[in-house]
Amino acid sequence: MNILHLKYAVEIAKTGSLNKAAENLYMGQPNLSRAIRELEAGLGITIFERTPRGMVVTPDGEAFLQYAVRILAQIDEMESVFRDGKKRRLTFSLSAPRADYIAAAMVAFAGETRTEPFTYYYKETNALRTIRNVLSGEYNLGIIRFAKGYAGYFKALLAEKGLVGEPIAEFDSVLLLSRRHPLADADTITRADLREYTEVAHPDPFVPTLPSASVLREELPGDAEKHIFVFERASRFELLGGNPLCFCWSSPVSETELDRYGLVERRCMDGARTYNDLLIHKKEYSPSEVDRIFLRILHKTKENLSI
Question: What is the pTM of this model?
């Protein structure tokens, strides 16, 4: 086994295809296939299952790839430190839900003055993908969000995957509306009041044990019959600010963001749900000084929003 074998296996896992991986690696598909067979024989495991749909990672392969990704990242870091006398590069990586207070903390964190070279990765996605991102080694830290009723499920899942979790926040969902929305100044708002308006939501929530067709019904607490699904947090704000007949459910939002998009934050008498945000990382991972700086900023930002 050598470094090239690691690179080959990681590329195949990334593409799910021998042909595509060979193309990306600028080598022939037969040579790549032979190298992977030699790697598997040397380790005594099957890394990939060959199927009509492509190359599927096996459980043993998943464990192997976690090591491979970490080793390749360390090699890249070592080269950047010692080649041409370069300074050590600070790295930070976070996979997290689409949350205003986390984004605000990231802005403050990125604005800190640093003399060292650095690279930061910040990905907004759902809980399941965040768990996968941390397990694969692509991201050192993750924050997962789930309805409070699923706390037991996630506690067991994290233990099974060798991940540790630390509570970050617990909050009741709020409504975000344009200041021009007909309900913006209403004394009270109920789910029935929202039925005639358009709900803006993210289309990829993760709810354990439910088929995908049922997930959206579980995660959308209102009775709205009209929906606009967006993947990006900023797009959601743009839609809300530009359309006075839209609304969305959200974690609490800063006054700065509300003012920027012309929004108001309101409570719903019978539609709010309680959510937990949990910081996760691998058991063997020790948060770096850069990680700890971000987490201090995150907790301060959260406190400013009274979450």
Answer: 0.70
